[in-house]
Amino acid sequence: MPEWNQYLIMNARDIGRVLGDNQVIDVTFTSPPYWDLKNYGVEGQIGYKQSLDEYLDDLVTVFTQVWRCTRKNGSLWVVMKSLKKDGTLHLLPFKLAERLTCLSKNAWYLQDVLICHKTHTLPWSHEQKLQDHHEYILCFSKSKKFVLNIDAIRSPNSVANWWVKYPERYHPLGKSLSNVWELAICHAT
């Protein structure tokens, strides 16, 4: 078992071997490799030069191991985008969600789908495809009894000054987090 607060640079397929059946994970937030778009330069990498089924099978294998290592009230957040390949639009996040929620054992529960709005993306798109300005964030839980503590993530800063006129419309701790997240990529100068 690795020590806490340690980075592990390893193949994600081996997480179960490293953590065993210890339920030590509260939250996993990840963006898996894109399917057949990017060569990350690692032999046997997930996604590159794989069929769609091989890619999804590998992700299910990894997230099943994550499930075993996650605490009963834990969650999994997966950032993915759809992909148009050979004229066919593949709704990868939803294909993955279907597989993860339909497992006979170790099934994840899909709790919500968020949109990650990317404000800075490439200024061009591929032929016959609009620019990608979003990705999906799938929120899964290990248990049906998932609790999202909305009060912990409310923001009083985002409530307009005119809310004072209509206090019945707002929570005293502020607005709830939206299911659309803004993601601005910052570049160091």
Explain the overall architecture:
This protein has helices spanning 15-19, 52-69, 92-101, and strands spanning 25-30, 70-80, 83-85, 88-90, 109-118, 134-141, 180-183. The protein has 189 residues and is α/β, with parallel strands linked by helices. It has a single domain (12-183), classed as 3-Layer(aba) Sandwich (Rossmann fold). The strands form two sheets. The chain has a five-stranded mixed sheet. The protein has a two-stranded antiparallel ribbon with strand order 3-4. A hairpin with a 2-residue loop joins strand 3 (83-85) and strand 4. The longest helix has 18 residues, at 52-69. It is globular and about 60 Å long. Mean pLDDT is 81; it is low at 185-189.
Count of extended strands: 7
Major β-sheet, in short? 5 strands, mixed
Termini gap = 39 Å
Average pLDDT, to the nearest integer? 81
Name the CATH class: Alpha Beta
Q: What is the 3D shape?
A: globular
The CATH H-level homologous superfamily: Vaccinia Virus protein VP39
SSE layout:
Blueprint: H1 15-19, E1 25-30, H2 52-69, E2 70-80, E3 83-85, E4 88-90, H3 92-101, E5 109-118, E6 134-141, E7 180-183
Parallel strand pairs: 1-2, 5-7
Antiparallel strand pairs: 2-6, 3-4, 5-6
Keywords:
189 residues; alpha/beta; Rossmann fold; five-stranded mixed β-sheet; two-stranded antiparallel ribbon; 7 strands; 17% helix; 24% strand; globular; disordered C terminus
In short:
17% of the residues lie in helices and 24% in strands. It is α/β, with parallel strands linked by helices and 189 residues long. Residues 185-189 have low confidence and may be disordered.
